[in-house]
Amino acid sequence: MYFPLAAVGSLLVASNSVLAAPVAEASSGLQKRWEYSKYFNLEGHRGARGQMVEATLPAFAESLKSGVTTLELDVSLTASDKLLVWHDEKVDPTKCIDTTPVSPDDEQFPYVGKNLANLTVEQIQTLDCGSLRLDGFPLALTRPNTTLSTLEQLFDFVDCATDEPVLFNIESKINGDHHNETRSPEDFVAAFKAILEPRGEGFIDRITHQSFDWRAIIESKKVMPSLRTSALCDDTTIWAYPEGETTGNLTVHGNGPSNWLAGIDIDSFPGSTPQERVAQAAASINADILSPVATSYASNVTDVNMPGFIPFTTKAMVDEAKKLGMKVEPWTPNRLNLIEYLVKDCGVTGIITDYPRVAHDWLVAEGYNVPKLPGKKEIKRIDRCLEKHLVLTKH
Predict the structure, then answer these.
(1) 3-state secondary structure string across 118-146
(2) What are the backbone dihedrals phi and psi of residue 295, each rounded to the nearest 5 degrees, phi first?
(3) Which of 37, 45, 156, 176 could form a disulfide with 213 if both were Cys (CB 3.0 to 4.6 A apart)?
(4) Cα distance between residue 211 and residue 193, in whole Å
(5) Of 232, 201, 227, nearest to 215 (Cα)?
(6) Residue 306 lies in a domain
(7) How many domains does the chain divide into?
(8) Kind and range of the H or E run holding 211
(9) Lowest-confidence region among 8-17, 156-165, 233-242, 263-272
């Protein structure tokens, strides 16, 4: 789906206050998630995109080492009906390099630039997506020859790497504007169901399904009522676009239902601000979490302390969402001034960040309850399991 360059997808559960875990859940094997409900929800975005090349198993290993509660990730549904851990609709030449075709006569080669929905896992796993460092993340470590993993491969790695009940916040990559460029919400939810149900309710209880395309959230609740859902949004997705434009923001926007919100018009809900109304709209589809962008795309500056900063996540939004029974987990604050604003001023229940280790240190210093950093023994286990499960190109 389309994202402006500044955007980063995201979201899951947990907060400083203990979530209301019914006794019946705790006694039926669903207690693991509630072990993490005591924590502020720190999520590593695409693993830990600022620390390690994104969405690869090394990135998720880095996130585990950073003391997160939740691994945040995106999945695309491929032509072979497999859920692949990756953010982009197409193979981005700034992130992945072609090596060799899956077969000598493969007419789709080269794969870079192709839609993932039109490629098989076998084709995609010939790509080297570990060698290139993005300009926006100059300190990220690379892991050459690393390719992409399926969702099952990620689950297997985490099962190997830790006994902790780490949570997963999984975004289905669906294009709300151009439905033919990605698979349908029904296809995604069916694929989730096929992978999650065999792992049991205890595992499902550690999962949140998030999406910008709210049709997927509605479908999730219909097919898997126990699966938690998170309604992603930003100011480019909550209204119809201005006439003749392909996007909008808080200060320049159209009116009426957005393609991304399953036909919902946020202005039909009560609230003095669009942020409050979008919280009302998310509650109307029974979302468990609201996951807004932290900074409005109308803002010309990136730091909350700079003159002219325009937030999208506000205290009024958070208060409204909490009143309606939802958590609020914004993305992607990568500045401590912004994290401080979201956590202290707005009262969010979690954050999704590209720099989970720095955020972890700040949260500890400020007295927030987050998981302890793993010790030497735990780190050795993570590294050992990474070597065991790392998917490399054959090149």
Answers:
(1) HCCHHHHCCCECCCCCCCCCCCCECCCCE
(2) -110, 130
(3) 176
(4) 16
(5) 232
(6) no
(7) 1
(8) strand 207-211
(9) 8-17
Residue 314 domain-assigned (yes or no)? no
Q: How far apart are CA 81 and CA 47, in angstroms?
A: 23
Q: Residue 100 corresponds to which amino acid?
A: T
CA dist 8 and 344 (Å) reads 22
Give one DSSP letter per residue of 297-315, joined into a string.
TT-S-SSTTSTT--BSS-H
CA distance 192 to 210: 12
Flag whether 124 is in a domain. Answer: yes
Range of the domain at 387: 36-173+355-394
Burial of residue 284 (CB within 10 Å: 0-12, 13-18, 19+) is: middle
Number of H helices, E strands in the chain: 13, 9
Three-class DSSP category at 11: coil
Q: Is residue 84 part of a domain?
A: yes
pLDDT in tens, 239-270: 999 999 999 999 999 999 999 999 999 999 99
Contact 288, 272 (CB under 8 A): no
Rounded CA separation 251/75 (Å): 31
Cα–Cα distance for residue pair 147/140, rounded to 1 Å? 16
Exposed e or buried b for every residue in 340-376, given b needs 16+ CB within 10 A?
A: ebbbeebebbbbbbbbbbbbbbbbeeeebebbeebee
pLDDT of amino acid 154: 98
Q: Identity (one letter) of the amino acid at 124?
A: I
Digit-coded pLDDT (tens) for 299-324: 999 999 999 999 999 999 999 999 99
- Res. 5 pLDDT band, cuts 50 70 90: very low
Token pair, residue 269, equals 């809900």
The CATH number given to whatever domain includes residue 71 is: 3.20.20.190
- Assess whether pLDDT exceeds 50 at residue 29: no
Which DSSP state fits 252? S
Tokens of 121: 């896992």
For 49-81, what is each residue's pLDDT tens digit? 999 999 999 999 999 999 999 999 999 999 999
pLDDT of res. 30: 45
